[in-house]
Write a structure and sequence with these properties.
alpha/beta, Rossmann fold, 2 domains, seven-stranded mixed β-sheet, 11 helices, 11 strands, 19% strand, binds adenosine-5'-diphosphate
């Protein structure tokens, strides 16, 4: 009997999830497996929102942002009783293994399901790049390029008006979106969970840039959930020669057609996830480390320390 796999997307959506869905589906069909798309994450799984996929089900989805499977949050999935309902649904459809695309919450659900006898493979899909066990997550590159596009435009207008733009970016307690943006747009200041936030230091730095280096404009990239971007912009107006202006980019960072890099990453990861399933592995997640696609136990990915970005922060500081 053909091996049957289910696929779902869960947690926050990210551009490139569709490319991963396509790769998993095509790679599995090619290996003679049957594929079932599960709508709306674990919520849809519990409710039995399951449809069989063929090759055509994933045609023309690669270029689209978001996820054709939909995503949802189901906090109750932490309860074993609720997960038992999910297992029942999978049994009903005779689905043997599950590929889940999402963030660390999604991984926790996958690990618990594996412990209940359903082999699960996680694929990291989130713009935040906040998952250990991979250098990059699917969606990060697209979000970075979306942010960059916005910041480049802000720079044009802020240099005409002697402004300092404070741009708040997402990241969910991970500073990578802020750091990579700051490096790639040549920002003057980056504030992230890794740098910490010292308001006096930021003001002093901007004063120096203005008085000594005669900068006509400045860009401050701020990670979300650290301080209020508007309040910081007011402080900048009050204490420096720049007119501070805040821009909170919000959910546009999650949208858009995935970049080539994200499509390729998602495709490689999706293909590899099916290989892991074929090998009978469960409770693993796919990652990219030093440009090699690897499988890592989810447990390890959830409990390991994130690699330090200190060298990149130091480089950023040297080049301002
Ligand atoms: P992300 O996967 O992006 O981190 P969430 O943290 O919202 O997003 O997790 C997505 C879903 O994963 C949750 O809505 C819930 O259904 C499931 N989940 C999260 N944490 C756990 C857990 N500890 N055990 C089981 N399922 C979980």
């Amino acid at each position: 009997m053909a091996h049957k796999i289910g696929i779902l997307t869960s947690g926050g959506d990210a551009p490139g999830m569709n490319a991963a869905i396509r790769a998993v589906t095509r790679a599995a069909l090619k290996r003679g497996m049957e594929v079932y798309g599960i709508m709306d994450g674990y919520k849809g799984l519990v409710k039995g929102k399951i449809v069989e996929f063929d090759r055509g089900s994933v045609s023309d989805i690669m270029i689209r942002g978001g996820t054709i499977l939909g995503s949802a949050r189901l906090p109750e999935f932490k309860d074993e009783e609720v997960r038992k309902e999910a297992v029942e649904q999978l049994k009903k459809y005779e689905i043997d293994s599950l590929v889940v695309i999402g963030g660390d919450g999604t991984y926790r659900g996958a690990l618990s399901l594996t412990e209940m006898g359903i082999n699960c493979i996680g694929i990291p899909g989130t713009i935040d790049n906040d998952i250990v066990g991979t250098d990059f997550t699917i969606g990060f590159d697209t979000a970075l390029n979306t942010i960059l596009d916005a910041v480049d435009k802000l720079r044009d207008t802020s240099s005409s008006h002697h402004r300092c733009s404070v741009v708040e970016v997402m990241g969910n307690h991970c500073g990578d979106l802020a750091l990579y943006t700051a490096i790639s747009c040549g920002a003057e200041v980056v504030i992230s969970p890794e740098t910490g936030f010292d308001e006096d230091k930021v003001i002093k730095r901007l004063q120096e840039l203005e008085r000594i280096k005669k900068k006509r404009h400045a860009i401050v990239i701020l990670s979300e959930k650290i301080t209020n971007a508007h309040k910081l912009a007011e402080k900048i107006t009050e204490n420096t020669g720049f007119a501070g202006r805040a821009t909170v980019l919000g959910h546009i960072q999650r949208g858009g057609s995935p970049t080539a890099n994200d499509r390729i990453l998602a495709t490689r990861m999706g293909d590899y996830a099916v290989k892991l399933i074929e090998e009978g592995k469960g409770g693993h997640c796919v990652g990219i480390i030093d440009n090699e696609i690897v499988g890592v136990p989810i447990d390890k990915a959830l409990h390991e320390e994130r690699q330090s970005r200190k060298r990149m922060y130091d480089m950023f500081d040297r080049l301002v």
